[in-house]
Each structure stands twice: as structure tokens, then as C-alpha cells.
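Lecture 7 notes: from sequence to structure.

We start with a single chain of 93 residues. Read the sequence below before looking at the structure.
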Amino acid sequence: MALTLIPGKKTAGITLYALSTCGWCRKTRELLDSLGVEYRYEYVDLLADDERPTAVSEVTRWNPSLSFPTMVIDNKRSIVGFKEMEIREALKS
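Now the structure, written as C-alpha cells:
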């Protein structure tokens, strides 16, 4: 899996699993961009067939329903869906 790094302020280790066609995923990325934080993301639907199972396994570890977006923060907690206030609160520095 090759996560794409978006540079910014390092507030937490943020990994976003998303779908390229998902409007809520886009809104989550836009929120992270507006907050100016560093994060990594991956569009699971655009992965090669041999890479997708690894990503799916990682997402289901944090979100058994395998829905998107799934954001993992510091490998300690996850936020599933576009929950703006919860995301803002989790990333306060």
C-alpha cells in the first residue's frame, strides 16, 4: 500500500481511507486541508487488485462495517464518516 502524504502541521498521525467517488470522503479531505494538518490517505477503490485486500483488512480492523471515510488517528482511535466537529475536536493542538 502506498499512502499519499499531504504535508502540513503535525498534530497527530492521521491516516484516511477513502473512496475516490465518495462525496463524504472528499469533504473529509477538504476539512483536513483547511485545518492545515499533515495526513496520509489512500483511495481504496483505486488500489491494484493485489493491494486492495491489505487495505480492506486495515480498514475493517478500525471499522468492521467497512464504510468510508475511515480516519485513524495515532493508531489509537478511528472516526468513521464525515463528523466535522468530532474531527476538529480530535485534532485540536
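The chain has a mean pLDDT of 95. Keep this in mind for problem set 3.
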